[in-house]
């Protein structure tokens, strides 16, 4: 089977589903209104309903552009964050806020390059087994106290402490930090972690295996410092307004659950004089269509996403506001391999084969996404990208192979495959679930129940293993293949499907100390093609709407990290 499909073939029932979705989307489009962002005005400020000072500046100090009277940025943020604790955050929702409130050793530049942040410089020795970060001496917590190397020691130890329970504890182990694995397993105390403060402003990291990209990994919030003074004073309540102490450009001001979270400029921040946005308002809007409506009416300066249903029209009507850029991210479905019928690899293989990815990217997402047959995207830096054999088949060939696999697993017309597909509340996820479940019904006779949960509940149910098959999205935390492949190691806190493979784990472990990790990564991907713990659907793009008045949005950053401090709002 060597031919490749050139045109997505759509069955009659799938066409019917697509037609019904289009009718619904047209109605939603009609309700979105026009002109809000074109007129701009003060709608966003009025909708935010917060007290904000007059801008310190009338014009931008570098560009000379006239600035808005009040610098209040209103951002759509998709859902209510599950946590604002950098060591407990596990998703982009909380991450979008935490990167404004806190700052690590490094940060992501506008093009995705790693730049100095709290660390002004760094160096490695002992064949990359020891890394030394030299901290800025003007770093301050929002309570005015100095940020020191001791705060990073405390934060990194906290991230691996089993009593804290970070789902990202494995991230520190993936970085090769000495003793991280034993600490996570409860075999050693957090104080044994390979980090220490040589003095107040020199932070040293000792690794078990040499890692050349450690500075890139420190962009992630799991490696942020932690304010011992606030945590010890308030315990689990330290992230509440009035209690939180942070070291980023902003500090938490108010948090009204289900309505908005407001951050104010941190006057103690080291670059406060260069920060133009005074207030940031994060609005949790789970419905992408509702978010678009509020954007179109001028109540938001930027959205967190764009409804896939409306991409075609937005490309025509708002081309200058629509951001579409490659992102190191994969959209997939994860199988709970400990629960029937997904404990049978033949079922997982059949369902993966039967997804027509060309239909998805051509008729549903329409955001320049790329069909995915692997976990790791092809544009990850330095990755030797290869495709499984089934990626070269035509879709009819994949469908026939899927039917054969399902018959081998014992499923027939008289004994159809039945299961539930879980996704978090969002029109785009719903549209994909409807179309893909229809593909499985039409091609395999499967009876699929699709169910949705709000974001926090969705996360908790996945972590508890209370699902059979669920939507999964993964955005690389740094630009190296291991950020994707370690997701499915046995000790990964984000491996909700429970898949485990000893050879796979060892490959990822060996890759950390190899001068050329690609052979290990290639073999790891091959194991995924054989075991199918996840069903990749497409490689994602960053898709958002950004007001013409909002400047500085990082349109070319594949990490899709948006720092509010880098932006500003121009006058009408």
Q: What is the secondary structure topology, with strand pairs?
A:
Layout: H1 12-30, H2 36-39, H3 43-48, E1 72-76, H4 92-101, E2 106-108, E3 114-116, E4 119-125, E5 130-135, H5 149-160, H6 169-174, H7 180-184, E6 195-199, E7 202-206, H8 214-217, H9 228-234, E8 250-256, E9 260-265, E10 279-283, H10 288-296, H11 311-317, E11 322-335, H12 345-353, H13 357-365, E12 370-371, H14 395-408, E13 418-424, H15 427-444, E14 447-453, H16 455-463, E15 469-475, H17 482-485, H18 502-512, H19 518-531, E16 534-545, E17 550-551, E18 568-569
Parallel strand pairs: 1-10, 13-14, 13-15
Antiparallel strand pairs: 2-3, 4-5, 5-7, 6-7, 8-9, 9-10, 11-15, 11-16, 12-16, 17-18
Indicate the mean pLDDT: 91
Total DSSP E strands: 18
Fraction of residues in helix: 25-40%
Shape: globular
Q: Specify the biggest β-sheet.
A: 6 strands, mixed
Q: Kindly provide the radius of gyration, computed on alpha-carbon positions and rounded to a whole number of angstroms.
A: 24 Å
How does the helix and strand content classify structurally? alpha+beta
Q: Uncertain segments of ≥5 residues (pLDDT<50)?
A: 1-7, 25-31
- Given the structure, what is the number of helices? 19
Question: Quaternary status of these chains?
Answer: single chain
Strands side by side in the biggest sheet: 12-16-11-15-13-14
N-to-C CA distance: 59 Å
Tell me the fraction of residues in β-strands, as a range: 15-25%
